[in-house]
Each structure stands twice: as structure tokens, then as C-alpha cells.
Amino acid sequence: MDPRQIEILCNELGLGDLEIAPHALSGGLLHRMYAIQTTSGRYVVKALNPEIMARPTAMENFIRSELIANRAANFVPALPAKTFNGASIQQVDQQFCLVFEWLDGKSLKHSEINSGHCKTMGSILSSLHMGDFSDLGIVNNSSEERRLTDWNFYLKKGQESNAEWTSLLFENSQMLNDWNVEAINSAMQISTDMVISHGDLDPKNVLWNDSPVLIDWECAGYRNPKQDLIETAIYWSENGAGEIDQDKFLSFIDGYKGTVQNEIHANWRMILASGFLGKLDWLEYCLKRSLWIDCTDQDEQKAGTQQVSGTILNIKRYAEKINEIEGWLNEI
After folding, report:
1. pLDDT tens readout for residues 71-89
2. Residues 133 and 213 both lie in one domain
3. What CATH number did the domain enclosing 279 receive?
4. Is the Cβ–Cβ distance between 260 and 126 less than 8 Å?
């Protein structure tokens, strides 16, 4: 999104005149973020990825996610996009975007997260799961049949383009397929117990000042509450090397339990197996970006390439930790 488009956006939405040139913010893996300061205040403009917005369901998904974010703000500290004339999604030329109030705060690095943060986030997630979204008309598509990913297709494309991750994908393609099968079977079996949740509540999507605020709601929708709990607890208890700190993990679970005031029971093996699904989906998207299948520019292609190998290794680490995590949960 160029400065001219941002200036047009400010004029059309009545945000005032730009006082300084917009500057790009780091951190967005899918979209571009810009900080702007106008005569009326400070804002963040999120320029939505054109490749994603070209998908048939993209606009509907963003409208739905902002409906959820606005309602969630009644239950948890959430930051939805600003609305103008009743709409959250804005358009300049062919570029769609969201506009947010500026928040003074930062996302925590793994080394900065302590057990207190984890307990707080567990409590917030529980409050979100108990929130009432029933009148929004959000459709639950979680029971739709999932397809197996054809990892050999991406392997062949990688070999043709001499991609740097080709050997790693070749070495792990059979395991990726096995985990894919197990994840789809498990996800189908837990799809009858669903709540609406954020969907991607890792540390980068929470800004902290004196208290946390939940941002970036684009993945919001129906989730199995136990699977969402475990996935989010892992996000908050991992260190920079992907190892899971047991004390932080259990603190997150404790924070969640403290709000629901109840024991938490589940088939944890099935819940943990379903956790492969989101990770495998992300891997496929990274592969598509790396191979120019789902990509708009060279920077995005480079980012996709860089993330493929790390994502495969993260999935392998997760597989290696499942038995231990299941043991922790069964002891609670």
C-alpha cells in the first residue's frame, strides 16, 4: 500500500491529514501493517494481502472475524477494527484494508513470558470460550470433509525449482502424510463440541502494557475448546527453541480451570493429534508461497521459503512432545 493510497484513505474516512509519512511495521506474516499519525490521532492500517483477498470466501471471512472481534470485546480485552458507515473493511483502488486505533504496547518474546502471563492468558481464553455469540449467525463449517494434502505434489515442484527445503520435505513426506491422516480423523471426531474463539492466540497477537489486549482476529471462528486450549497453552509455554516449559504450560491450564471452576476432561491423545491440522495447513501455505502458487511478490516468496524448513522442524518437535504433554494432562 503506497503513501498516496493511505492519504486517500485518511481523507475518505475523515481521519485527518497525515502529519508524518506512514511507516511499515514488522511482524505481519500475511499482510502489511503501517503506522500513521494524523491530525486526529494515531492509527494502524492493515493492508490485506491481495492474493488472499482474491479467494472467493476471503471477504466473507473478514466480515465474520470482525463481527466476532466486536462481540468478543464484551468478554475479553479485544481490539476490533474501526467501523466507518457500518463497515470494517475499507477499500482504496483495488486494495482492501482494516484500520485500528493505535495501542501503546508490545507483544512478548518467549524469553519475556512467565507463568503469570500464562495464567492470565488461560483465564482470558476461558472467558472467550464462555462468551455468547449465538445471535451473530456464524455458521459452523467445522464438520466439512477435509482433504489430505498431496505433499508429493509440492515435493515435485520443489525439485523442479531446486528449492532449498526439498531434501527436508523428502525426508519427512511420509510422516507428514501419516500425521495428516491422524489429524483429519481426530478433528472429525471432536467437531461436535465447538465454541467460537480467536483461533490464533499466540504471543505475537497479544499486546501488553499494564494488561493484555487481543489483536488480529482474522482466524476467529469455531474451534473445539480443548484443542484450542492445548494449542494456545503450547504457544505460551514454548521457548525460542520450540521446547515446552511444563510450569508455564500447567499455569496456562490452571488459569483456564480457575475461570470455568471445573475439572477438565478429554481424550487428550485425540485432541493432541488434531493439533497437527493447523500446523500442516500453515506448512502447505508456506510451500505455496515459496513456489509462487499463492504469492504476490518476491518478499512474500522469500518469507514463504524461509518458513518452510522451520515449520517442518516445529511439526516434528510437536510430534516428539505429544506423549509427554499427554502425561501432564492426565495428571491434572
Report:
1. 999 999 999 999 999 999 9
2. yes
3. 3.90.1200.10
4. yes
CA distances from 299 to 31, 59, 137, 292, 296 (A): 12, 24, 38, 11, 9
Q: Are 253 and 226 in contact (CB under 8 A)?
A: no
Cβ neighbourhood burial of 51 (10 Å; 0-12, 13-18, 19+):
middle
Q: Closest Cα partner for 23 from 36, 32, 9? A: 36
Contacts of 324 (CB under 8 A, 6+ apart): none
**Whether residue 115 sits in one domain with residue 96:** no
The residue segments making up the domain with residue 166 are 110-331
Cell of 135: 445471535
Interatomic CA distance for residues 129 and 224, integer angstroms: 10
pTM, rounded to two decimals: 0.90
Q: Are residues 302 and 210 in the same domain?
A: yes
Question: 269 with 167, same domain?
Answer: yes
**Residue range 95-112, pLDDT digits in tens:** 999 999 999 999 999 999
